[in-house]
Every structure is written in structure tokens, then in C-alpha cells.
Amino acid sequence: MNLKGFLYILIPTFLFSSMEIALKIAGGQFNPIELNFVRFLIGGLALLPFTILYLKKNHVQISKSGWGRIALTGFVIVVLSMTLYQLSIGMTKASVIAIMLSANPIFGLIIGFVFLKEKLSRTNVLALVLTLVGLLIIINPFHLSGAMGIMLGLLSSIIFGIYGVMSRVNGNKIGLNGLSMTCLAFLFGASELGILMGISHIPAVAKAIPSSYSEFANIPFFKGITVQTLPLILYISVLVTGVAFGLYFVSMEKVGILQASLIFLVKPALAPVLALVVLGEAMTANTIFGIVVILLGSLITLMGEKIAYSVMAIFRRNNPEAHQEVDELEIVKDKIENSELAKHRRATEEAVRESLESKRHEAPSED
């Protein structure tokens, strides 16, 4: 990987890892629903020029059903997942929520397996088990603190996994790349959240909301945005939301999906360190151990097949008799492939020979 490719990975990794810290700081100055609305509205607008350029360049025409798919995807990511995510950050440690959100690819594997019948390999199952074990170690159910925040963070991560599957499937059906699908989903999701925020200003609705949930009544739209808070809002909206997501999809195109996955592999380890330095959130022993287990699960997801084949090769060298049948199957497979290749080669040579013969007969004689 060259320097440019390395930067494609490094920048979004840092931005994603600092996301919970920035939102934690801003959470004390803004209504959590308002912050979620502003964040995705500005983040979506930051990606809009690139989306318009892509639509024009590729002549993409979005149908009514396509707009419906985008609207539903935006509702899932902004209104459901990120609203729960923002609420959870205000209830528990930012480092714990960061680790939980990083587990969303594992939940995406489960969702793809259940609803899309996507293949789930043994390495993916092992990675899933390790991730769940790591989450249990961090949550520490026997000494649970901030239970509501942890549950909301876990639910947010699961829904984020659903969003990942929906974005991939709907984007392919509509003809959008990852960045364009993200931009439009952000804008639609922010608009849908804005409608719900407007409904909260209706007197009858505001009175029906219990006082313990006052943040859901008369939700402000742009309250608290001043000269002092504007840099933080722009950092969260433009950099953490717009640029981070944008560079993530660009990195998949520039350096490949495998290398881009390193972003969510490094985030569980980097985010708690940043939370310790900036917020002073101490890392307990079970948190550190849980991070190691989750990183191991993520590593297996990323490199699972290579590791599995390497382990199989070692076992075969040490136990040739135990894997004799497998080796025989490989030999048979090679013979079949070679025979098919030879058959194809012979057929091609015969076709060329017949073509030359026909041309020779059709050509006029010199006499």
C-alpha cells in the first residue's frame, strides 16, 4: 500500500474513532435529537456535490420505488440507529459505545445470512462468537452499570448492521455507488427526523410525553449553535460524518474492501485510548480484555480464510494420513480442471483449423 492509500485508511480511522468523544462533548450542550438532526443534515449536504457529479456522469435516473428505498434506508440509519446511538452516549462511557458500534459488521453477517441467504463460513461463525463474548466481557453483566445506555448502544449497533445490508442491496438495485447512497440516505433520514421533531412541537403531543423524557418534547432545530459551538458542530457534521463516511467508501474503491475494513478493526482499540486522553475515561481490566477478544474476532473476519487455509496446510504436513481423503479430492479436482482445460484447448484448435481450411477452399486460385 502506497502513502496515498495509507492516508485513505488513516484519516477515516481517526475520525471514526473520535466520533463518540466529540458527540459526548457536544451532548452536554445540545438536545441529543437535535444534534443527530444537524449532524446528518450538514454531513449529507457535504457529500451532495460528489453525488450530483456521480449521477450526471453515470446518467442515473432514480425511479419512485428507488426514492422509496432511499427514504427507508435513511429512516433506519438516522432516525433509528443513530438516534439510539446518540442517546446511549449520554448514558454510558463513550469508549464502550465505540466498541459496540464497531461490532456492527458481525451483526451484518447474521442479517445477511438470515434474510439474504448469504453464505456464513465457519470462520465467520467463530468471529461472531468471539465478538459476542468480547461484548459480554465489556458489558460485565454481573457488575452492570449504565445498563440502559449499554442496551441502547447494542440495539443501535444491530440496526446499523441492518442499514449496512440495506444500503448495499438498495444501492445495487438503484444503481448508486456507496458514497451517493450514503449521501441521499443521510439527507432523507435528516428530513424524516426533522418531521418528527416538528410533531414534538404540537401542544397535545408535547403534553403527552412524560417529564422524565423531556428531551423528546419541543425538540429544537438549531438551538445552541453559536460562534463558540460552531467549530465543534462542523467537526462532527462535516468531518466525522461527511468526510469520514465519504473517505471510507472512497478507500474501498482505491485500496480495496479488505484494506478498508481495517478502519473498523482499529477503531475498538483506538477509541478507548482517545477517550482516556480526552475525557479521562479509565479503562478497566475487563474492558481491555474484551477489546482484545473483539479485535481477534475482527481479525478472523478480515483474514479468516487465509488463516484457515494456513492452519489446514500445517495440519496436513503434520498429519498426512488424517487428511489423505482431502488431498485425494484436491488431486481429482485438479485432474478434472486440467482435463476440462485440455478439452477446451482441443476444441479451440479444431475450430481454428476448420476456419483456415474453409478460407483456403474459398480463396480463388492463381490460374
From TrEMBL:
Q: Name one GO cellular component term.
A: plasma membrane
Ranges where the EamA domain occurs: 4-139, 148-302
| UniProt xrefs under Pfam families | EamA
Annotated localization: Cell membrane
UniProt key word tRNA-binding: no
Keyword Signal belongs to the record: no
Q: Which domain of life is it from?
A: Bacteria
Q: Which residues form the signal peptide?
A: none
Membrane-crossing ranges are 7-25, 37-55, 67-88, 94-116, 123-142, 148-166, 178-202, 232-250, 262-282, 288-309
**Membrane topology according to the record:** Multi-pass membrane protein
Record key words, sorted: Cell membrane, Membrane, Transmembrane, Transmembrane helix
Q: Where is this region: Disordered?
A: 342-367
Under InterPro entries, the record lists:
Diverse_Substrate_Transporter, EamA_dom, EmrE-like
The family this protein is said to belong to: Belongs to the EamA transporter family.
PANTHER family found in the cross-reference section: EAMA DOMAIN-CONTAINING PROTEIN, OS03G0707200 PROTEIN-RELATED
Protein name per its UniProtKB record: EamA family transporter
The scientific name of the source species is Companilactobacillus nuruki
